[in-house]
Amino acid sequence: MEKYNGLGEYLVGYLDILGFEYLLRKHGPEIIHKSLKRILSDFRITLKSGDASGDYFFVGRDGSKASSVWVDENIKNIVTEGFFNFSDTIFLYVKLSDNSEENVTWFWAMCSLINEFIAISIQEPKSKDVIRLLFRGAISKGKGCVDKKLQIHMGDPFIKAYRLAECQEWMGGVIDKRSIDEDWIRKNIGFDKEIIEYALPLKIYNLNSINYVLNWTNSYPYDYSKLKSSIESYDWGSQEIKKNRTLEFITYAVPKRDSSRIVGHINRKIQP
Known about the structure:
Blueprint: E1 6-17, H1 20-48, E2 57-58, H2 69-81, E3 83-86, E4 89-95, H3 100-121, E5 135-147, E6 152-155, H4 156-166, E7 173-175, H5 182-186, E8 195-201, E9 208-214, H6 224-233, H7 240-253, E10 266-267
Parallel strand pairs: 5-7
Antiparallel strand pairs: 1-4, 1-5, 2-10, 3-4, 5-6, 8-9
């Protein structure tokens, strides 16, 4: 598809696994492979299906079948066309157009995808052969180039999304406010939407900076106590600071979220 190839202005989402090196050394490649395969398989199967006849289907903000099919098509297209991963890294991307209204919709879809992925990763697996893998992420925009045939992905938005995600001290995501249009953010901000303002915990100089962050708690399908327990029970290794910063965020965000969206945008069943 033209929107996922060539030179142009790209919207890029980035995700990576928290504590990947520690988890890989502790559990070995086989367990990590199974665990990542479980998450990726569930995520991609969930987003590929667009009807309510099977186990996976799209739902609206109130839990009903989504009314905007076009947005759902954008979500499915990003996952099936603008998706690649290696090691502990996942990229989602789409080439933007000159149509500002269309681009806002792509931005909403990307925010929704990153939020869903973070929320899906924290849920307990049913199988004892896999472990949970938690993520942090970022979204950026800029000039880039993609050659799908040769698997080339490069440009400012890929670099900026990576750097933004890597400097965060928590499980969560941030918007690159230097490159994302303010109008896009205004249409997606608020506790009942994809983005909220928050003091982003950064590694650099231990400083916090007020940023637009992804409110993934809206996509988590259970209550605060279950979410808190899931975060506390995760194997953070020596990264206690990331756990504490994540707990601080959910304490701030969960009580304010829209209760009608507790099931998130996508109704799913976790693979065993």
